[in-house]
Amino acid sequence: MSIPSPQALRRGLLFDAADHARIRANTQHPRFAAFWAEQKAADVTAAEKFLREELRLTNHPLHLLKAQQILERAAFLYWVERDPAQLALAKLAMRRMCDFPEWDSFMEGGRQILGLQRATEGSVALLLALDCLGDALTAEEVAEVEDNVLRKGIPACYATVYGLKYPDRVQGWTWSPRSEVDEFRHLSLQRWPLILNATNLKMVPTACLGIAACRFIGRNAEAEGWLELARSSAKSFATMFGSDGCYDEGVSYWGYTILYLALFAEVLWRTQGIDERNLINFSGSVRCALSQTMPTRDSGRKVQDFTHIKGWTMPMPKWQDDVVNHGDSNHGVEVSVAAWIARTHHDPLAQYVVNEIGAVKHLYGLIWYDAALPAAKPGVELNDIRMRNDIVISRTGWGVDDNLVALRSGGPANHEHADRNSVIFKAYGERLLHDPYRAAYVNQQPRWALRQTEAHTAVLINGQGHQYHDGSEGTNASWAFAKVIDYATGPEWMRVTSDATDAYQLVNPDVTGVRRTLVFLKPDVLIIRDVVEAAKPITVEARFQINHEDAAGAVRASGSEFAITRPHASLRARAFARGDITVDTGQLALAPQDGVQPFGRVTSAAATHHDIITVCTAAPTGALHGDITPEPNGRSDWIIRGEHCGRVVVFSL
Fold first, then answer.
1. Suppose 407 and one of 392, 440, 490, 561 were both cysteines; which one would form an S-S bond, judging by CB atoms 3.0 to 4.6 Å apart?
2. Contact 525, 617 (CB under 8 A)
3. Rg of the Cα atoms in the chain
């Protein structure tokens, strides 16, 4: 493709010279100062050595990404501080990115590179760098970057977005034979044009195609067509968000996805005057993300590292950024998009999120943050939330010592686990009922086991979890559905029942009912009732996972109860049933180098009807647990009586 000589754009993609003073002040704001210090402390000499001597032009997953990250950091540092060393590094990174003959690891029809990861973000990084470096670049340097984006970035993004819109017209998606992706080649991409339509890997190429189109409109005859396709794709993808703003891929992938949706909307508004900043319920979406935050206490113990792929360590959130980690969620809520929502939608709660919650991981927060905007703390109405996708979260507050219960109901999603009806219980700064972090993304790795029902605080039937795929196509969605059939809240309590019968029937057609009811008596009593029925006798096992990520969790069983201890809190669980049960402990079948995952276990002997109640009480370390006891009341109900930490409990279930 050829373009006319560069001419001034109407506005910078995300900022102009008039924003410089505000953005520079943001780098010193207490919320961003530590992040900015980390950016400035990055080793320039080591980065130069990597770019000149170590970078391989066929390593797209890691080396092209690292070059992109160096460029983003150095270019922005130069724009803010005019450091000549950062300018030189940014130019080097820019040149080395352009040296790559291709920008991604995927192909369509054996010819066209597809933009699913590196070609997408990389194109945007290069175009934003042009804004950052400005007059420090020659006309020839600008033209070279634009030419590379036009040849390697836009066609790759266009082919992806087009294929997702018209999957029947796709010839066939495959791995590029010229890319270093041997650890993934066994994964089939045949159905990816269908699978990715409801995932983050649709929104990112869509946004990057649209942003690039905005750069070239008026200078390239095809740019309006690129923008039309991108806008069409963004509108279709917006339906992936619930009317309340919820998103199915988990809070980490929510951040990645909504960030690129916001980037596209912002660039579209700034450069074209087209306002699609209300394409989804952005304010509601940040509230759903906020609800999935749950800061915990640092035990002071080292967390074991695990490698995802060669050169890529699996992330673990910092304790203060801990989240409800359904599926592959693996880091705290990133605040950049909250800053954009606060600024664009005049949302005080989004401003509170920026100021108080989550992690700073991207430079975009510095661009969008406005310290003068008012902030408002979340009200008690957000303490209990049932999202439109049937994720239920109930809490006592937002601090590290506040308590929280989360239930994973709802349908399948990309990056999900086999976790229907699973529970997370955080109390007094500790994860007491756990959902293990850092499951493998590749089915040939041992920690793929962490995706299975066996690794969750959930139910097994005849030793099996509910339906899940084999990973041959990646981390795509299963067929497993659950649904909330009862939900109620009141002063200091929440009750919810979720039905996961369909999910388990896909494995065992004799199953006729799998229902889990939670009663959360705030702040520290959680009652779990599992009713499981089948046409033939089955055994039922309820597992309760222990947080042992830092080797600081323990579980012991005695009689009809088990106890979980963590450095700052403990949990006592007492099991009751209408049939015969045993209570003991176990450990997931992983080698020590792949992680130790202990659990408590309640097993109900073979029968066609199981009705199990597990009464969980939480207490700070050193405090005593009370005594709460269920008693059968007729053929189907229970009366629950007792006391814990000064609270008298009497109710029927």
1. 392
2. yes
3. 26
Tokens 């045993």 found at: 582
pLDDT tens digits along 426-464: 999 999 999 999 999 999 999 999 999 999 999 999 999
**Residue 147 burial (10 A CB sphere; 0-12, 13-18, 19+):** middle
- Are 545 and 460 a contacting pair, CB within 8 Å? no
3-class secondary structure, 27: helix
Contact predicate 409/485, CB 8 Å: no
Distance in angstroms (rounded) separating the CA atoms of residues 427 and 296: 9
Sign of CA dihedral 605, 607, 608, 611: negative
pTM for the full model? 0.96
Residues paired with 515 in a beta bridge:
499, 531
Structural contact between residues 581 and 612, judged by C-beta atoms closer than 8 angstroms: yes
**Residue 325 — φ and ψ, nearest 5°?**
-100, 55
Asked if residues 561 and 583 have their Cβ atoms less than 8 Å apart, the reply is yes
For residue 1, pLDDT over 60 is answered with no
Give the orientation angle of helix 20-28 with respect to helix 33-41, to 10 degrees: 90
In CATH, what number does 383-652 get?
2.70.98.70
CB 547 within 8 A of CB 424: no
CB 615 within 8 A of CB 628: yes
Two structure tokens written together for 549: 């990520």
CA atoms within 13 A on the CB side of 457: 30
> Among 650, 377, 649, which Cα is nearest to 523's?
649
Residue 518 has pLDDT above 80, yes or no: yes
Q: Where are the domains of the chain?
A: 383-652
Do 352 and 335 form a contact (C-beta atoms < 8 A)? no
> In angstroms, what CA-CA distances link 507 with 477, 480, 499, 501, 593?
16, 10, 16, 10, 31
Q: How far apart are CA 611 and CA 604, in angstroms?
A: 9
Structure tokens at 385: 């939330």
Say which residues have a Cβ less than 8 Å from residue 49's Cβ, sequence separation at least 6. Answer: none
d(CA 389, CA 557): 35
Under a CB-based contact definition with an 8 Å cutoff, are residues 346 and 354 in contact? no
Residue that the structure tokens 């939670």 belong to: 518
Sign of torsion, CA 136 68 22 24?
negative
Q: Nearest to residue 464, comparing CAs of 428, 429, 515, 508?
A: 508
For residue 512, give every residue at least 6 positions away whose Cβ sits within 8 Å of its Cβ, in sequence order, or none: 501, 533, 534, 535
Residue of 391, 360, 362 whose CA lies nearest to 292: 391
352 to each of 36, 137, 229, 349, how far by Cα in Å? 20, 39, 35, 5
What does DSSP say about strands 384-386 and 312-313: parallel, antiparallel, or unpaired? unpaired
Report whether pLDDT(532) > 50. yes
Q: Enumerate helices (H) and strands (E) in the chain, giving the number of each.
A: 17, 23
Q: Give residue 214's Cα distance to chain centre.
A: 29
Token representation of residue 609: 């009807």
Angle formed by the axes of helices 348-356 and 336-345, nearest 10°: 150
